[in-house]
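> example.struct
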């Protein structure tokens, strides 16, 4: 490698590092604050590293609210929504990508229109419906409005369109058609897209705050964002080290999932525009 190439690569790393610094700095400060003593948090001169690590902040913050129950609720609700959306989106995308039927263009246009309409527009109608069904303050209230995803249907349709028709013809010769072709061929070949959509949906519903706040009234079904909001409202949260500790273990699972699956996330959006 020549000297000019080394200089260009070094300059590239410097620019990328400078752009990455504003993104990582808040996370670093959250971690450092979570490990500080309360006196060091409010010190006149900001301390970039605590004089001694206070690991006790994490169990103290954990017991400040029923975070164990909130974790279980978030896992149940988020995974249920993701699995149901994968089922409905894959079936809808399969029909739009591999079949021809009357009104297909209209159905696809309706899906695109649904991408434009914000979900908050439907909250009043959904709340009234759930209230009449007696589902408020239950898991069904948190899951039912999100059982279908226009974004997931669009993304998987684009992935299914990239699979050659010749492969489908060969599968039919082997008596693999219909849902068997979807399960054994389309979904495995679209794995990066499936994983990327799962990641997007999981993070979105793990962090969802407004809808769970509306339809839940008890700790029995409240999720982590609501629990963190309750923790902020308590007197103990004047201790910012405890608040940062609670924020850290609430956000850590999704950060770990994203870093594990980030390459699939990029691949899926690169493939989404291959076929129209």
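> example.seq
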């Amino acid at each position: 490698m020549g000297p000019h190439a080394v200089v260009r690569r070094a300059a590239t790393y410097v620019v990328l590092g400078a752009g990455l610094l504003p993104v990582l700095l808040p996370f670093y400060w959250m971690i450092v604050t979570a490990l500080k003593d309360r006196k060091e948090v409010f010190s006149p001169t900001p301390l970039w590293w605590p004089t001694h690590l206070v690991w006790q902040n994490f169990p103290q913050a954990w017991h400040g609210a029923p975070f164990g129950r909130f974790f279980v609720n978030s896992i149940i609700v988020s995974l249920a929504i993701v699995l149901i959306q994968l089922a409905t989106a894959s079936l809808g995308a399969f029909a739009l990508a591999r079949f021809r039927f009357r009104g297909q263009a209209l159905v696809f246009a309706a899906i695109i229109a649904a991408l434009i309409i914000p979900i908050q527009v439907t909250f009043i109608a959904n709340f009234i419906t759930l209230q009449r069904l007696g589902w408020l303050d239950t898991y069904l209230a948190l899951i039912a409005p999100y059982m279908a995803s226009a974004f997931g249907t669009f993304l998987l349709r684009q992935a299914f369109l990239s699979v050659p028709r010749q492969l489908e013809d060969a599968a039919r010769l082997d008596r693999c058609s219909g849902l068997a072709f979807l399960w054994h061929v389309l979904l495995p070949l679209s794995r990066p897209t499936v994983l990327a959509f799962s990641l997007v949906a999981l993070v979105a519903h793990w962090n969802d705050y407004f809808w769970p706040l509306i339809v839940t009234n008890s700790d029995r079904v409240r999720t982590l964002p609501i629990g963190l909001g309750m923790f902020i409202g308590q007197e103990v949260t004047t201790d910012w080290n405890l608040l940062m500790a609670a924020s850290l273990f609430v956000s850590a699972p999704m950060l770990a999932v994203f870093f594990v699956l980030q390459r699939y996330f990029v691949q899926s959006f690169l493939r989404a525009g291959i076929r129209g």
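> remarks
The chain has a mean pLDDT of 85.
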